[in-house]
Amino acid sequence: MQESTAVAATEEVAIPFAVEMRDITKTWPGVVANDHVNLKVRKGEIHALMGENGAGKTTLMNILYGLIHPDSGEIYVNGQLAHITGPRDAIRLKIGMVHQHFMLIPPLTVAENIVLGHEPGSVRSVYDVKKAREIILALSKQYGLPIDPDIRIERLSVGLQQRVEILKVLYRAADILIMDEPTGVLTPQETFELFGVLRGLAQQGKTIIFITHKLREVLELTDTITVLRRGKNAGELVTKDTNQAEIARMMVGREVLLRVNKTPAHPGPVILHVENLHALSDRGLEVLHGVSFDVRAGEILGIAGVEGNGQSELVEALTGVRKITSGKVTITQVKDGQAAEPRDLTTLGARAEREVGLAHIPEDRRGSGLVVSDSIEDNTILGRQRWPQFSWRSIVLLLRTIANWAKKLIAEFDVRTTSVEAPVSSLSGGNQQKLIIAREFAAEPIALIASQPTRGVDIGAIEFIHRRIIELRDAGKAVLLISAELEEIRSLSDRIAVMYEGKIVDIVTPEATEEQLGILMTGGHL
Amino acid sequence: MFFQVLYRVLTSADLWQAALVFGTLYLLPALGGLMSERSGVVNIAMEGMMLTGAYAAVATAEATKSLWVGVIGAMIAGGLMALIHAVVSINFKANQIVSGIAINIFALGLTNYLVFIQTQGQGLPSLPGALRLPTISWGPLANIPFLGQVLFQQNIIFYVALLILAGIQFLLFHTNIGLRIRAVGEHPQAADTAGVNVRLVRYLCVISSGVLSGLGGAFLSLGIAGIFSSNITAGAGFIALAAVIFGKYTVLGTAGACLLFGLGNGLAVRMQDTGISPYLLGTIPYILTLIALVGLVGRTTPPAADGIPYEPGTE
């Protein structure tokens, strides 16, 4: 709070804030999402709204945009008290929001998506295709955001879809742009372009509120920072006077180790061998066109790639959830540097693969990693309920043993909960993820497939999960890491395989730059 | 013998005229269902809305001695049934299939009950000619061989339905309102954040499905049958639903599907002198429906948000 007074004193007090939110409180059943939160954003600046997951960033912005109604608090826009009861009010106040999950309608055209709700002419009139096209072309020229107005959204790349979202906001003449985690889905090049666009908009006098939890982006792009922690203001900072460590400490509330500490790998024999793997997508089209790689004992192989290039299907194929149409997968037990006979995994189902010693952290922890409505103790034996120590003849569960097992795991893996009988849904995202990791690591696997292991997880938990994965590597296991976060891939992996359109296009060392990886990820060559 | 009859039937103007009559009967509720589904509300209650409309048409026409008041009464009654569906599925976010089933059962019980207390169980009598929807004969055009009988000597509602067909095609794909309807059916969050009133759009679309189904019901009781009897719709609303799906949620596809099902119905009526059991022939439209759904179309994709209640502020 000290910083904020310091800033205010040096600025002209007469100019009202573009946005000022005072004492905003919003309670969901059982959670206080926003607890007397204050936010002040000056006109023409790029302001970062930071915080861990569940800190209340998106809730606060949804309140500003009228999607959620606060229990109490006031909003001032350009110094005027504003009553925002829905997005229509926000749009009238020239507030625009680019949502984390794009608000675009795939079968409609770019033009239709942009003008929707504010079509040229009156509501009752005929849809004027030509006029809409003209307006959009003019707008795209004015802001330097080229786009084809007649193409359907479903045919655009994610980066271009985001451009449509920005144009949509500009079409509504917004002066205040809220960007909710805009870089999560972008390639490094697309992120670079986006930052250029946002700087240009700020120069033209637009005010930008940039929601993120990525420290580097904030330092690169923004002017000022508001940090939220557990629904409360944790502090306000001026970007040029701060650093990553200070922001991280403010977000988490304690010192955080940002760098991953790891020693050089000592790869042993090949454990996981994947050869010319082919598989079909849900729609019956081939998505894996001959994927081959090896993961050795004591090594982390990272798979980088823009989401949707077959990574998810690869993981499913390897873990026995998706049928392998051709190719081969084997796993080899390694003891004291000695490899046993390789075992063929190609046709095994998920249950058999677990028995062989393959552990799996699925990308969607709530969808396929946990049964969130069930208790923590039940979830700690999920997939291993037939093991003799947990059930009598695989029929009757040994409840007391399971409870003790669960207690041991949550202590060892620092899963914060009041009771092992509580449903998993009562845990935070980070603790849910730690629970999965506890379960998978406790099975003493030969190899681990970790898919987006820190997605939507707080900085503190990320630190813990990364350390655990490295420990597993150092214990001589093979780790396959799939992540959309390039930083994570680069800091954890010993080798990086880049996936593009269902193929491994190259395998590089972690010294490769983000730019080089970005080129490979979009189909280029080094 | 069988094929000779089939050939004679298929080339007769009577068959095609009947096909268009039944096609119209399916088309009106189908267009209504299409509006509702396009806005993202699953509607399987056209059957019940039609049945209510069919009864209300007869009841109000009899009471006011006016044919057109009867037609309007049918549309209002259908619209009111749809309003129930709208409130239940849009405001209360209940399961839309269950709501639809409930309305269908409710409509059957309600109309049976009203007929019973009105006539002490005797059943309603046939309507006098003045209270029946007239057939329009287009002067010299009506005398063209074959086409004259098929196209230019049809019930007035046939021509009304054609106008509505064209109107809805234009509304959905060439107007700002249509853009909003399609947007709401595909991605209500996106529409809401763009400033579209999702609830209003859905309400209007669901109610229009009831109004059109009610008109279809009036066509059945005041036009085709000239009487109201228990469960007179006999599944026509469900065939309309199938037509929407078979037509891949497009206006013209739906119209084509209605024509096909109407043809099946016409065949069932006209093939009776082949010696095939009329009960068996009566199943032709329904068998066609099944074949159409599983065989010819394969998977059709409904609007992405069809059947999912909208919760503001969720993603």
Number of strands of chain A: 24
What's the story with the biggest beta sheet of chain A? 6 strands, mixed
Low-confidence stretches of chain A: 1-12
Largest sheet of chain B: 2 strands, antiparallel
The neighbouring-strand order within the major sheet of chain A is: 6-7-8-3-9-10
Calculate the mean pLDDT score of chain B and round it: 91
Structural class of chain A: alpha/beta
Strand content of chain A: 25-35%
Q: What is the rounded distance between the termini of chain B?
A: 63 Å
Number of E-state strands of chain B: 2
What portion of residues of chain B belong to β-strands?
under 5%
Average pLDDT for all residues of chain A: 88
Work out the largest interface and the residue count of each chain.
Answer: A-B, 35 and 24 residues
Percent of residues in helices of chain B = 55-70%
Compute the number of structural domains of chain B.
1
CA radius of gyration of chain A is 25 Å
Provide the CATH topology of the domain at 1-94 and 176-184 and 206-256 in chain A: Rossmann fold
Helical proportion of chain A, percent range: 25-40%
**Broad shape of chain A:** globular
What key attributes describe this structure?
heterodimer, A: 526 residues, alpha/beta, Rossmann fold, 6-stranded mixed beta sheet, 18 helices, 24 strands, 33% helix, globular, disordered N terminus, B: 315 residues, mainly alpha, ABC transporter involved in vitamin B12 uptake, BtuC, two-stranded antiparallel ribbon, 14 helices, 2 strands, 70% helix, 2% strand
Describe this structure in words.
The complex is a heterodimer of chains A (526) and B (315). Chain A is of the alpha/beta class and 526 residues long. Among the domains of chain A are: 1-94 and 176-184 and 206-256, P-loop containing nucleotide triphosphate hydrolases (Rossmann fold, 3-Layer(aba) Sandwich), CATH 3.40.50.300; 103-174, no CATH class; 268-357 and 479-526, Rossmann fold (3-Layer(aba) Sandwich), CATH 3.40.50.300. Helix content of chain A is 33%, strand content 26%. Chain A is built from 18 helices and 24 strands. The longest helix of chain A has 16 residues, at 188-203. The two termini of chain A are 48 Å apart. Chain B is an all-alpha fold. Chain B has a single domain, classed as ABC transporter involved in vitamin B12 uptake, BtuC (Orthogonal Bundle), CATH 1.10.3470. Chain B contains 14 helices and 2 strands, in the order αααααβαβαααααααα. Chain B has helices spanning 2-10, 13-38, 46-64, 67-91, 96-119, 147-151, 156-174, 176-186, 188-193, 198-225, 236-246, 251-270, 278-281, 284-296, and strands at residues 135-137, 153-155. Chain B has a two-stranded antiparallel ribbon with strand order 1-2. The relative contact order of chain B is 0.21. The mean pLDDT of chain B is 91. Classes of the chains: A alpha/beta (526), B mainly alpha (315). At the A-B interface, helix 3 and helix 4 of A face helix 8 and helix 9 of B.
